[in-house]
């Protein structure tokens, strides 16, 4: 499985965890890998790193979102799909140190597939603002 497909699988799992709220995310990862019949070790490792990393850094990630959305907005106003995509993108850009141009492009593509008509521009704008605010350098 390629990186784009892995990212999409991680998004699906992260989205379901966002909906459930108080769950054992490690158990959710195991169930997801089994249900989706994911056996590739690199894919399993990637999904584990993404989900665990986002859960462990959730407070900092949400702080980044709050600092980069319109004044007067709150996280509760953001659709679950867009919020999940933002968390995925922020984690990969700031914590996994992946090239932000690649991450933003792929997360925006996921927003076109799973989000509403406004998702693409919203997700792109927030992630671009975070890159700028954090002085992220493209590698």
Overall CATH architecture:
Orthogonal Bundle
Structural class: mainly alpha
Tell me the number of helical segments per DSSP (H or I, 4 or more residues long).
Answer: 7
What Rg, in angstroms, do the CA atoms define? Answer: 14 Å
Mean pLDDT: 92
Taken from the alpha-carbon principal axes, the silhouette is: globular
Helical content stands at over 70%
Kindly give the count of domains: 1
The span between the termini is 23 Å
Q: Could you tell me the strand content as a percent range?
A: under 5%
Question: Please, what is the CATH homologous superfamily?
Answer: NusB-like
Polypeptide structure, described:
The protein has a single domain (3-133), classed as Orthogonal Bundle (N-utilizing Substance Protein B Homolog, Chain A). Helix content is 73%, strand content 0%. It has seven helices and no strands. The chain has helices at residues 3-20, 25-35, 41-56, 58-67, 80-95, 100-114, 119-133. The longest helix has 18 residues, at 3-20. It is globular, with a radius of gyration of 14 Å. The two termini are 23 Å apart. The model has no long low-confidence stretch (mean pLDDT 92).
């Amino acid at each position: 499985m390629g990186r784009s497909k892995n990212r999409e699988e991680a998004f699906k799992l992260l989205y379901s965890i966002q909906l459930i709220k108080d769950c054992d995310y490690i158990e959710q990862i195991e169930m997801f890998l089994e249900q989706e019949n994911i056996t590739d070790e690199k894919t399993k490792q990637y999904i584990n790193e993404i989900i665990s990393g986002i859960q462990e850094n959730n407070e900092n990630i949400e702080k980044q979102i709050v600092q980069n959305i319109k004044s007067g907005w709150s996280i509760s106003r953001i659709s679950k799909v867009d919020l999940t995509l933002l968390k995925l993108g922020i984690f990969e850009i700031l914590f996994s140190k992946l090239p932000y141009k690649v991450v933003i492009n792929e997360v925006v593509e996921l927003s076109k597939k799973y989000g509403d008509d406004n998702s693409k521009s919203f997700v792109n704008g927030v992630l671009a603002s975070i890159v700028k605010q954090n002085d992220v350098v493209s590698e």
